[in-house]
């Protein structure tokens, strides 16, 4: 059994801690809130993020990062992408041995356009990390915490590390596949959040299922286009961390990205949306990163481009729709530009 330091005690860090604890692992769940840590340690609840879910007593909460890492043999990072560098910058001061790093966050960093595994590699010296892996797929914390059937993918450049992650998490309600395509898994998980904001927006504007299906399908096409340019395998985008996660995020009431888009479609401002949400909406920063990256790589991403203008340049949501619908005529399959394997 492992001793896992889970860094990030929001919805997803807490839900994954339940999976790990169910599998017999000792969990040190680190977060910044003293009040939350006391609630977890004394009453075994994290009600701010997972209402009414009793946590196993083998989950121990910490607010001291060094203490949470003390005798850990595995690190699971689940903070929002924007917090990743700060947390890694602090934690490397407390490590004196190489540990496997796993992350479960979904984002791309604006400016650098780094995937999270690349941020880990930049921030943590090689002698302090034995491997870097990601776990990603259609998985809302609210359902995982209730132990509802969930499937997910683990990926690493090191096949043994991907298998380690599979064994670490696999339970009879949490099924883990492996996939060696680290780029595709991270890109699919990050970019589906952009499309989910768009799907929510169509709902807020009063459109129905046709618009949602259109956005999901054409969204997947542009995610795959960028992914292929970056070196991903096209098959990954048909898998759990691609299509699977796109479906769940564009259709679930649990999705923060979908809900944010829905509010924008109803006419709320981005500030109002963020105030109301109180949880991370990764798709917003990722839209900026993907917009920049697509420009740099010369990849056509029309949905990402109009959403970037809505989120960062006050384009109205209605204007965004007419811009997308009024694009020049295209051939569907040629437009996908997926080269044969
Ligand atoms: N919620 C889900 O169902 C789900 C599923 C899969 C992946 N994810 C991904 O997991 C990541 C975390 O999402 P979440 O749902 O847990 O978010 P959340 O909003 O529920 O919680 C975020 C947590 O991060 C903490 N945090 C913020 N800034 C921090 C910092 N600088 N240092 C330390 N902690 C900080 C917050 O205090 C909070 O505890 C995101 O990348 C998200 O896309 C979420
Ligand atoms: O609630 P969201 O929109 O951040 O999505 C959560 C997960 O990524 C779904 O797999």
UniProtKB/TrEMBL annotation:
<feature type="binding site">
    <location>
        <position position="137"/>
    </location>
    <ligand>
        <name>sn-glycerol 3-phosphate</name>
    </ligand>
</feature>
<feature type="binding site">
    <location>
        <position position="49"/>
    </location>
    <ligand>
        <name>NADPH</name>
    </ligand>
</feature>
<keyword id="KW-1208">Phospholipid metabolism</keyword>
<keyword id="KW-0594">Phospholipid biosynthesis</keyword>
<feature type="binding site">
    <location>
        <position position="12"/>
    </location>
    <ligand>
        <name>NADPH</name>
    </ligand>
</feature>
<feature type="binding site">
    <location>
        <position position="280"/>
    </location>
    <ligand>
        <name>NADPH</name>
    </ligand>
</feature>
<feature type="binding site">
    <location>
        <position position="32"/>
    </location>
    <ligand>
        <name>NADPH</name>
    </ligand>
</feature>
<keyword id="KW-0963">Cytoplasm</keyword>
<dbReference type="InterPro" id="IPR011128">
    <property type="entry name" value="G3P_DH_NAD-dep_N"/>
</dbReference>
<feature type="binding site">
    <location>
        <position position="256"/>
    </location>
    <ligand>
        <name>NADPH</name>
    </ligand>
</feature>
<dbReference type="GO" id="GO:0047952">
    <property type="term" value="F:glycerol-3-phosphate dehydrogenase [NAD(P)+] activity"/>
</dbReference>
<keyword id="KW-0444">Lipid biosynthesis</keyword>
<feature type="binding site">
    <location>
        <position position="245"/>
    </location>
    <ligand>
        <name>sn-glycerol 3-phosphate</name>
    </ligand>
</feature>
<comment type="pathway">
    <text>Membrane lipid metabolism; glycerophospholipid metabolism.</text>
</comment>
<feature type="binding site">
    <location>
        <position position="255"/>
    </location>
    <ligand>
        <name>sn-glycerol 3-phosphate</name>
    </ligand>
</feature>
<feature type="binding site">
    <location>
        <position position="192"/>
    </location>
    <ligand>
        <name>sn-glycerol 3-phosphate</name>
    </ligand>
</feature>
<dbReference type="InterPro" id="IPR006168">
    <property type="entry name" value="G3P_DH_NAD-dep"/>
</dbReference>
<feature type="binding site">
    <location>
        <position position="106"/>
    </location>
    <ligand>
        <name>sn-glycerol 3-phosphate</name>
    </ligand>
</feature>
<keyword id="KW-0443">Lipid metabolism</keyword>
<feature type="binding site">
    <location>
        <position position="256"/>
    </location>
    <ligand>
        <name>sn-glycerol 3-phosphate</name>
    </ligand>
</feature>
<keyword id="KW-0547">Nucleotide-binding</keyword>
<feature type="binding site">
    <location>
        <position position="257"/>
    </location>
    <ligand>
        <name>sn-glycerol 3-phosphate</name>
    </ligand>
</feature>
<feature type="binding site">
    <location>
        <position position="141"/>
    </location>
    <ligand>
        <name>NADPH</name>
    </ligand>
</feature>
<feature type="domain" description="Glycerol-3-phosphate dehydrogenase NAD-dependent C-terminal">
    <location>
        <begin position="181"/>
        <end position="321"/>
    </location>
</feature>
<keyword id="KW-0520">NAD</keyword>
<keyword id="KW-0521">NADP</keyword>
<protein>
    <recommendedName>
        <fullName>Glycerol-3-phosphate dehydrogenase [NAD(P)+]</fullName>
        <ecNumber>1.1.1.94</ecNumber>
    </recommendedName>
</protein>
<dbReference type="InterPro" id="IPR006109">
    <property type="entry name" value="G3P_DH_NAD-dep_C"/>
</dbReference>
<comment type="function">
    <text>Catalyzes the reduction of the glycolytic intermediate dihydroxyacetone phosphate (DHAP) to sn-glycerol 3-phosphate (G3P), the key precursor for phospholipid synthesis.</text>
</comment>
<feature type="active site" description="Proton acceptor">
    <location>
        <position position="192"/>
    </location>
</feature>
<feature type="binding site">
    <location>
        <position position="11"/>
    </location>
    <ligand>
        <name>NADPH</name>
    </ligand>
</feature>
<feature type="binding site">
    <location>
        <position position="139"/>
    </location>
    <ligand>
        <name>sn-glycerol 3-phosphate</name>
    </ligand>
</feature>
<feature type="domain" description="Glycerol-3-phosphate dehydrogenase NAD-dependent N-terminal">
    <location>
        <begin position="3"/>
        <end position="161"/>
    </location>
</feature>
<dbReference type="Pfam" id="PF07479">
    <property type="entry name" value="NAD_Gly3P_dh_C"/>
</dbReference>
<feature type="binding site">
    <location>
        <position position="106"/>
    </location>
    <ligand>
        <name>NADPH</name>
    </ligand>
</feature>
<dbReference type="Pfam" id="PF01210">
    <property type="entry name" value="NAD_Gly3P_dh_N"/>
</dbReference>
<feature type="binding site">
    <location>
        <position position="282"/>
    </location>
    <ligand>
        <name>NADPH</name>
    </ligand>
</feature>
<keyword id="KW-0560">Oxidoreductase</keyword>
<comment type="similarity">
    <text>Belongs to the NAD-dependent glycerol-3-phosphate dehydrogenase family.</text>
</comment>
């Amino acid at each position: 059994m492992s001793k896992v330091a889970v860094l990030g005690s929001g919805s997803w860090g807490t839900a994954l801690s339940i999976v790990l604890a169910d599998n017999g692992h000792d969990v040190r769940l680190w977060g910044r809130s003293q009040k939350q840590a006391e609630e977890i340690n004394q009453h075994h609840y994290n009600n701010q993020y997972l209402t009414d879910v009793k946590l196993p007593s083998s989950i121990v909460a910490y607010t001291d990062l060094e203490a949470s890492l003390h005798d850990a043999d595995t690190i699971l990072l689940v903070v929002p992408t924007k917090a990743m560098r700060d947390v890694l910058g602090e934690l490397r001061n407390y490590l004196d041995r190489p540990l496997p790093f796993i992350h479960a966050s979904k984002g791309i960093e604006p400016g650098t356009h780094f995937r999270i595994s690349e941020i880990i590699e930049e921030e943590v010296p090689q002698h302090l990390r034995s491997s870097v892996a990601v776990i990603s797929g259609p998985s809302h914390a609210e359902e995982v915490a209730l132990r509802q059937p969930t499937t997910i993918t683990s990926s690493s450049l090191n096949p043994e590390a991907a298998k380690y992650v599979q064994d670490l998490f696999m339970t009879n309600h949490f099924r883990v596949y492996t996939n060696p395509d680290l780029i595709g898994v991270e890109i699919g998980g990050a970019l589906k959040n952009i499309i989910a904001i768009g799907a929510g927006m169509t709902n807020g504007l009063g459109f129905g299922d046709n618009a949602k299906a259109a956005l999901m399908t054409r969204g997947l096409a542009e995610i795959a286009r960028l992914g292929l340019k970056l070196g991903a395998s096209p098959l990954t985008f048909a898998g759990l961390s691609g299509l699977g996660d796109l479906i769940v995020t564009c259709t679930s009431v649990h999705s923060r990205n979908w809900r944010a888009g829905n509010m924008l479609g109803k006419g709320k401002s981005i500030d109002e949306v963020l105030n109301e949400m109180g949880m991370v909406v990764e798709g917003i920063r990722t839209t900026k990163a993907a917009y920049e990256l697509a420009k740099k790589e010369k990849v056509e991403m029309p949905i990402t481009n109009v959403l970037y203008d809505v989120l960062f340049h006050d384009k109205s949501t209605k204007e965004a729709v007419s811009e997308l619908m009024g694009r020049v005529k295209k051939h569907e399959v040629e437009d996908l530009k997926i080269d044969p394997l």
